[in-house]
Amino acid sequence: MAHKVEFYGLSTCGWCQKTKKWLDEQGVPYDLLYVDRCTEDEREAAKARMKQFAERPAFPLIIVDDGAKVIQGYRPEEFEEVLKK
Amino acid sequence: MTGDRQPDERELDGRAELLMIKLDEQAEASGYHFNPDREMTFLLVRGLVTNTVRYGYPGCPCRLMSGKKIEDLDLICPCDYRDDDIVQFGTCFCNLYVSKAVKEGRAESHSIPERRLPTFEERKAEMKKRRDDPEGAGMKVWRCKVCGYICCRQSPPDECPICFAEKARFERIKAMEPQSAPKASPAPDPTPRR
C-alpha cells in the first residue's frame, strides 16, 4: 500500500542520507524537505509541522499518512514494518 | 560586494578530507574515537565544513543551526551532549564519535534520541541549574587515580583522555564547596586582662 510520506531532513546529516538511501532502494515514494536549505518561511513552517508530531523534533523525521505514524531517526526495522505494508 | 568567493563542491571535499585527518588524530589522542564507518564519517565531516561556510562555526551536521552562535554554542562539534551520549548509547547524536566498543566492532551504534532541550530558554534554565546545583543536576566530579585528571560529568569517561586509564580507575570525589569569606574576628575586648 502506498503511504503519504513526509520526510524532514538535513542535507548534512548522515542518518538522513541513510534514510533516503533506504527509501530509494525500497522504492518507497516520499516528499523530502531539506530544512537547512529552505527559505526562512519554509523553515519555520517545517519546524511547526515537526513540532506537531514530536516533542523534541530531530532529523530525520518521517510523518506517515498525516501523522498516523511518526518515525524519528534512522530506523530501518520500523520503516519496514510501517512503510512496506 | 564583499568579494567573498563561495567554495565549490570539490574544494569542500578537499577541506573535509583534511579536517577528517585532523579530527581523527585529535580524537584518538584524547580518548575519543571516530566512527569506523568511513563513508558515514566523511559525510559528517563534510557537513561540519558546510556548516562552517554557512554559519561561521562547525555546528553538528545532524542538527538545525539557528544561525546565532550564542544559541548554538552547545551544538558546535564536539557538542555538549557527546560524552553523555557515548556513555549511554555508544555514539554521539550524529554518529561521528563512538565508544571504544563500537570502534572495535564489539557493539553497534544506532540513531539515538535527542537529548538537547528544544528551546533556548529551557537550555539556559538547565545551564543555570547545573551551575547553581551541579549535584542536583546529576553532575559529579571524577578523578583519574592514575594521573589525577579531574572532570565534572554524569559518569566517568570510558578511558582517561590524558593517560588512557580505563573507566574503573576513576573515583568519585566530593565537589568542593566554594570558599566562604573569612569570618570577621570578634572585636578585641577592650577590658584589660588580669
How would you classify the quaternary structure?
A: heterodimer
Give the topology string of chain A: H per helix, E per strand: EHEHEEH
Number of H- or I-type helical stretches of chain A: 3
CATH superfamily of the largest domain in chain B: Ferredoxin thioredoxin reductase catalytic beta subunit
Would you count the extended β strands of chain A for me?
4
The rounded distance between the terminal residues' Cα atoms of chain A is 6 Å
**Structural domains of chain B: how many:** 2
H/E element string of chain B?
A: HEHHHEHHEEE
The number of helical runs of chain B is: 6
Query: For the record, what CATH class of the largest domain in chain B applies?
Result: Alpha Beta
Derived structural class of chain B:
alpha+beta
Total E-strand runs of chain B = 5
Secondary structure layout:
The complex is a heterodimer of chains A (85) and B (194).
Chain A: E1 5-9, H1 14-26, E2 31-34, H2 40-53, E3 61-64, E4 69-72, H3 76-83
Parallel strand pairs in A: 1-2
Antiparallel strand pairs in A: 1-3, 3-4
Chain B: H1 9-29, E1 33-34, H2 38-55, H3 69-72, H4 82-89, E2 97-98, H5 100-103, H6 120-132, E3 140-144, E4 150-153, E5 170-173
